[in-house]
Structure formats: C-alpha cells, structure tokens
Write a structure and sequence with these properties.
Length: about 500
C-alpha cells in the first residue's frame, strides 16, 4: 500500500496534467445551479442541473463510472458513461471521460452538469455531460467508515474528523441550534442582546485565574475576561436597561477536564427588579425548551445518571447537603476541621481558606445528585457578588442548576449594597495577596457604580458545559476546534 508521500506525488502529477492542458485546478468561479439537498427533495427526472461538491467515492466498471459527491447539504450519485460525449466545461478536450478517470481522486471538489435520471437499480442520479475541477486535493481524506481513530489526530485535523463522522457533524449542528434557541428564548422574554468588553483592566464576575496580555497602545497589561460581562451588564442595569443578555467567549487560565476548558462560550442575563427565585423559574423554563427544541426530549441518561428536566426540580441546601454527606458544617467548622475531612475522604484541595475548602467538600457531595435540582443557600464566602439571604444568616441568595452530578449554570440575586460589596472585595484582595490565584480582583469602579444605585437584579450564566452534558460528550469534544499544543 502506498504511503502518504507517494500518494501525494501521484496527485501532484495529476494536477500537473490538468495544468498542461491549460486547466486551472483551482478556479474561483463555480456555476452550480442547485444545492444537492434541493435536488434530493425535489427530484425531477430529465431536469438539467449543475451540481458541485467533494468526491466521496469513485467506483469504476469499465465503460461506466459512479461517484458520490457531497456539498455539505447532502450526498448525490453521479454517473459517467464512456459512450456519452463528456466535455470539460466547454473546453475542447479529446475525452472528458478519460480525463476524469485519469485526474480525479476521492477528496477533489468538482462541478458536474447533466440530466437527472433513475438507474436500473432505482438510484436517483445525475448523468454527467460536462465536468470541471474546482479544487484538486493533494492529500487523501479518511473514509467515512474508518475515519480518524486517534484523538490527537482527530482534534488536529478536525475538518477531516467532521467530514468523515456524521455524528460529530450532527453534534456541531445541534450546538448551533442550542445557541439559536437560547437567543430566541431570551429575546421572547424581552431581553436585549448586548456586547461588553473582552479585554479588562481587572477581571470581574467570577473566581478564576485569568489570561494576561499587553495593550501596546496604552502601555499596560490587561486581562481576557472570565465572565460574559457580569460587572458591565450590571452597569447597564444602573443605566436603566431592565433586561440584557450576552452570548460570548470566556477565557480562564486553568486546568482541563471533561467539564472545563480555558476558552468557551457562555450566556449571561441580567434582569432588573427580579431576584433569584424569579431567575430559577426562568431558567427552568429555558432548560426545558432547549432540551425539547434541540434534543427532542427532556429525559436524559448521561454518565450513569438519569434525569428528566420536566420533573419537579428539587431545592438542595448547600450547607445541609455537605453536613449530611460529610458530617461537616461549613458555617461553623474551622479550616483545620475541613482539611482533616478532605484528607479523610481522599480529596485534594487548592487554597487553605474556607471558601476553597467549602467548594471542595461540595464537589465531593454533588456526585450523588442526578437532578434536576437547584443548589441554594450558599455560604457568603463562596459568592462574593451575591446578595445576603436575610432569612439565613451567613448565606446568600444563589442558585445553581444541578444535573448528572455537576453544576450547569450559576445565578443569584445580585449584591447591590456598595458597602457590603466593598468589604467582600477587600476579603478577595486579601486572598489574592495570600496566593489564591482564583480569588476575585477588586473593581472599585463597580463599587462606585453601586454607590450611584443599582436596582434589585437577578443575574445568571450558563452555556457550553450545559450543551456538552445534554449532548453526552466532554466539553472538549463539543468544540469544533479545541486548542492543541503544537507538535514536536
């Protein structure tokens, strides 16, 4: 069997043959008259059409050749007969049939013209009377049956992976629909789509290690945002916009896992004169609509968990659940108590403070929850931007949707007390100074905005992780082009 280098050399020779005949193997103009899907849906025997697409198969039987071409909308069979005069797009070529046989390979893009007909075996096809090379492929493509098996190779050559893997293509199409349905849902509820900065002087809206870059014109370091404009959208609440949302990229300079990547897309909404209870009802409705419209169901079996988004959503108390599973009351336990329990349970943690340890213990407990559920009543230490719950001292009005043992979103009644917010920023600053790289940076301009006044507001964010869960794949697999280290 020829190796890739030998195959490339043969294909280059075929390209050179075309060029020797005055044929450009890479013309800019395509004269197709129909997408393949329109021919399939409205097949009319005898109709003259011009199609274009990638050659996915070539089957020769002496004086007749069969090929399947694919244009992204569908696949269609073309037939070439030796006893039928075939031209090369109007050029005076001695034998268009032989030229195609000698120069076309699987993977090439071609344009074909002719009449639609039905073969003796009942296959709807195009009898080619004229053809033209649109793009000569110098390297072969994988077959649909075998495809790319190595994950590293699949991600590096994702275009080939998608081409040869219909399930992956369908997943990417579903992801596009996921964002479309979410956007339409938010707009149907009166939310206005906005854009907020991606480069920030201080990162706000989440606790995560940021990416740093340099702004040459201003001569200063800036950060790629770690939330979808949380502190900016809340400024829009103060400006008088009652409902806003944004769908955009987020960057976090952290580790990778089936649920975490350094670059991903999220949606965040902000809703003036609403609280976390209002947000929970809206999110519940949105998740069910996404499930029905994108996946055609509300019942899922994912990673060993079964759940139905149409069921009643249980409300799980953060503190009570951790105490039930581990025996630790995170409100009263000391840092040493929590570290000892983490060691006993065999779980690692980052940061020797109550915030990180509480989060570590919660992540251990969440594995028992199939959902759908809302995690509520978080300790104030783990929610620097959430409003205090007056009925539960030391807690905040936060909610997180839980499915398949993990959080797939976060929202809360937004803290709009400037004094409280300033104090919490100071605590986060202290954590940063002590080496906690995920602690939140203080944003004193935001505090000043709160001093001017911001209405009661509910904010919420979700996105790519939710899609990956419902699609039953890792968040890395859910991306068309995940980041890869260069080879070598």
């Amino acid at each position: 069997m020829a190796n890739e280098k030998e195959l490339k050399e043969v294909r280059i020779e075929k390209r050179e043959k075309l060029e020797s005949l005055g044929i450009n193997p890479y013309p800019s103009k395509c004269d197709k008259t129909h997408d393949i899907i329109s021919v399939i849906d409205n097949f009319k025997e005898g109709e003259e059409v011009t199609l274009a697409g990638r050659v996915m198969s070539l089957r020769g039987q002496g004086s007749i050749m069969f090929s399947d071409i694919y244009d992204g909308t569908g696949k269609f069979q073309i037939v070439l007969k030796e006893d039928v005069e075939i031209t090369y797009s109007g050029k005076e070529i001695k034998d268009g049939f032989e030229l195609l046989k000698d120069t076309v390979d699987i993977g090439d893009f071609v344009e074909v013209s002719g009449a639609l007909f039905v073969t003796k075996r009942g296959a709807e096809s195009l009898e080619v009377k004229s053809w033209r090379m649109l793009s000569k492929a110098i390297l072969p493509i994988p077959t649909e049956h075998f495809g790319l098996k190595d994950d590293d190779e699949r991600y590096r050559k994702r275009y080939l992976d998608i081409l040869s893997n219909p399930e992956l293509r369908e997943m990417i199409e579903k992801k596009s629909k996921f964002w479309k349905v979410m956007r339409e849902f938010m707009e149907s509820k009166g939310f206005m789509e906005v854009e907020t900065p991606t480069l920030e002087v201080t990162t706000g809206g989440a606790e995560a290690r940021p990416f740093k870059t340099h702004h040459n014109d201003y001569g200063m370091d800036v950060f790629l945002r770690i939330s979808v404009g949380e502190l900016w959208q809340k400024r829009l609440m103060a400006a008088g916009f009652p409902k806003t949302f944004e769908i955009g990229r987020v960057f976090r300079n952290e580790g990778s896992s089936p649920e975490h990547l350094q670059e991903f897309t999220n949606m965040e909404f902000y809703w003036a004169y609403a609280n976390y209870k209002d947000g929970m009802e809206l999110v519940k409705e949105m998740y069910k609509k996404i499930a029905n419209d994108v996946f055609g169901k509300t019942k899922f079996e994912i990673r060993g968990y079964e759940f139905d988004l149409s069921d009643e959503w249980e409300e799980i108390d953060y503190v009570s659940k951790i105490k039930e599973v581990t025996g630790i009351d995170v409100l009263t336990a000391t840092v040493d108590d929590m570290k000892d329990k983490a060691k006993e349970l065999g779980i690692r943690w980052d940061g020797d403070n109550k915030e990180r340890l509480s989060d570590t213990l919660w992540k251990y407990c969440r594995k028992q929850i199939s959902g759908p559920a809302f995690l509520i009543n978080h300790p104030v230490e783990v929610a620097p931007l959430a409003k205090l719950n007056n009925d539960k001292p030391g807690r905040v009005e936060e909610f997180q949707p839980i499915i398949a043992g993990s959080e797939v979103g976060k929202g809360y009644s937004e803290l709009n007390d400037p004094v409280d917010q300033s104090e919490r920023f100071q605590r986060q600053q202290k954590m940063l100074m002590e080496g906690d790289e995920e602690a939140m940076m203080a944003e004193w301009g935001f505090v000043e905005m709160l001093e001017h006044g911001m209405p009661p507001t509910c904010g919420f964010g979700c996105g790519e992780r939710l899609f990956s869960f419902l699609a039953g794949v890792s968040i890395r697999e859910a991306q068309a082009f995940p980041l890869m280290k260069p080879k070598g």
